[in-house]
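We recall that each integer encodes one residue's backbone shape. We quote one record:
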Amino acid sequence: MTQWWYNRKTREVEEGQQSLGSDRDGPFDSREDAARAPEILAARARAWAEEEEKDDR
């Protein structure tokens, strides 16, 4: 199964692990998801922050 990565440095989608791990996010199951990585990761971060706020109450 092919895995897709989003390279934060180049802002490009990569098939497989082509660049340094510190420069990429993933893996994603599709090229489309990898292309949406910034949006997906921002949504996850918001959800985690909201969950943390709930736990702190």
About this structure: Residues 29 and 42 are 18 Å apart (CA to CA). The first helix runs from residue 31 to 35. The chain has one domain: 4-56. Helices lie at 31-35, 37-56.
